[in-house]
Write a structure and sequence with these properties.
By secondary structure, this protein is an alpha/beta fold. The protein is built from five helices and ten strands, in the order αββαβαββββαβαββ. It has one domain: Rossmann fold, CATH 3.40.50. An eight-stranded mixed β-sheet has the order 5-6-4-3-7-8-9-10, with helices on both faces. A two-stranded antiparallel sheet has the order 1-2. Helix 2 crosses helix 3. The chain starts with a helix and ends with a strand. The site of one sodium ion has 7 residues, from strand 7.
């Protein structure tokens, strides 16, 4: 997606050879015009598939998620992150380990918002090791629903998440793929 590549080149800040800061349009300030195009692009990439709901994770997945759900005219659900939890029967819970933050969060979705047999499109802002995406997929599967696909705004292709998700059989579409963040410079795949 050319518009997104330009945004990454013009406004992205390479913090290290692992981390790209995009807080001017995705992770803090959000660019609604860009997010609208992101939603249209995911609609195009997953065209022809039956999609009943979009699922993302708070907080930065919500903007691309809601714009995609708007294009598809289906509801958006965002998984909530919690430190630890007393067991409850009305929610799905999965553990997600963040390599970036070196901590485990529990992510939760209310059982009433995913029904068995539904097809759910997963959307997220970043793909690194794939932990968040796999956690969301496990929640969909716990519900007896099916993952229609996984749409990622920015994939760091030098980390293994994209490969692992594809090996697991998921249809993954990333709007931009970054091959490297070496020497303070973004190189696209
Ligand atoms: P993974 O899910 O693919 O395994 O990734 P990881 O645990 O490493 O990601 C932890 C958090 O860091 C996630 O946000 C993820 O979106 C974000 N992240 C990972 N790599 C980058 C990067 O290079 N740049 C930026 N800007 N973010 C990155 P989160 O903690 O869930 O935060 P948020 O959704 O509230 O923003
Ligand atoms: Na994030
Ligand atoms: Na995220």
């Amino acid at each position: 997606m050319q518009l997104l590549k330009e945004k990454v080149l013009n406004e992205g800040i390479v913090l290290s050879n692992q981390v790209l800061k995009v807080d001017s349009f995705l992770n803090h300030q959000m660019d609604p015009v860009l997010m609208k195009e992101v939603g249209k692009e995911f609609k195009r990439l997953f065209a022809g598939q039956k999609i009943d709901r979009v699922l993302t994770i708070e907080s930065s997945g919500i903007a691309p998620g809601i714009m995609t759900a708007l294009e598809l005219e289906v509801p958006l659900i965002f998984a909530r992150k919690q430190k630890s939890l007393t067991l409850r029967e009305d929610i799905y819970v999965e553990k997600v380990f963040s390599f970036t933050k070196q901590e485990t969060n529990e992510i939760t979705v209310s059982r009433k918002f995913i029904q068995p047999g539904e097809r759910v499109l997963i959307i997220d802002d970043f793909l690194a090791n794939g932990e968040a995406a796999f956690g969301l997929a496990r929640i969909v599967e716990q519900a007896g629903a099916e993952v229609a696909g996984i749409g990622i705004v920015i994939e760091k292709a030098f980390q293994p998440g994209g490969r692992l998700l594809k090996e697991a059989g998921y249809h993954v579409e990333s709007l931009v793929r970054i091959a490297a963040l070496d020497n303070g410079k973004v190189t696209f795949a």
